[in-house]
Amino acid sequence: MKRLILGFVILALALTQGAQADPARRRRPRVQERAAAVHHFDRNSFAVANRNVIRIRHGRAWWIARFPHTRFVLFGGGYYYWWGGYWYPAFGYDPYYSTYPYDGPIYGYNNYAPGQVIENVQVALRDQGYYRGAIDGLIGPQTRAALARYQKSHGLVVTSAVDEPTLVTLGLA
Fold first, then answer.
1. Which residue, among 85, 139, 147, has the nearest Cα to 112 in the 3D structure?
2. Rounded to two decimals, what is the model's pTM?
3. Among candidates 99, 96, 116, which has minimal Cα distance to 108?
4. Reduced to 3 states, what is the DSSP secondary structure of residue 143?
5. pLDDT tens digits for 147-159?
6. Residue 91 exposure: Cα atoms within 13 Å on the Cβ side
């Protein structure tokens, strides 16, 4: 008998908690639910992307064979390719353009080329007081330092790179 009463008490508590939580959920506008979903990101996405960088030089034919439906762009003296939300250096894609001042992945958004993404980040960091260098679309020492300061002050993983969490908190992605 005690087990039966205990079961009814647990059931009553569960129904009461469900009834209390349900109206609060119904009152939450769907726009807020979508906004919360949009701002969800993987804090470790840059670490995963950085492991995906192919650091061995290969010719253009190799790159095109492995990434046949991929966009390749010239950026900062070397070619980059689009894959999985990031721009990656395509080392060796063109022997005449093989200077990579930045050899890591760059998170992309709105179909912007890597240089435009970096310019937008530099402007946003400048507007918030983190960056004082030239708006040149390149990731140099000043841009990396500004990114690190911004990431640290916003509780992000400090990568000193243009990654998804940084662009989301800057309001760019």
1. 85
2. 0.73
3. 116
4. helix
5. 999 999 999 999 9
6. 12
* Distance of alpha carbon 12 from alpha carbon 10, whole angstroms: 5
Evaluate whether 117 touches 125 at the Cβ level (below 8 Å). no
Q: What is the DSSP letter of 103?
A: -
Q: How far apart are the C-alpha atoms of 158 and 144, rounded to whole Å?
A: 10
Find where tokens 């996405």 sit: 45
Residue range 114-170, pLDDT digits in tens: 999 999 999 999 999 999 999 999 999 999 999 999 999 999 999 999 999 999 999
**Pair of tokens at residue 65:** 């064979």
Closest CA to 122 of 167, 78, 155: 167
Q: From CA 3, how far away is CA 120, in angstroms rounded?
A: 64
Distance CA(155)–CA(150), nearest Å, equals 9
Report how far residue 25's alpha carbon sits from residue 47's, in angstroms, rounded to the nearest whole number: 35
Pairing of strands 72-75, 78-83: antiparallel
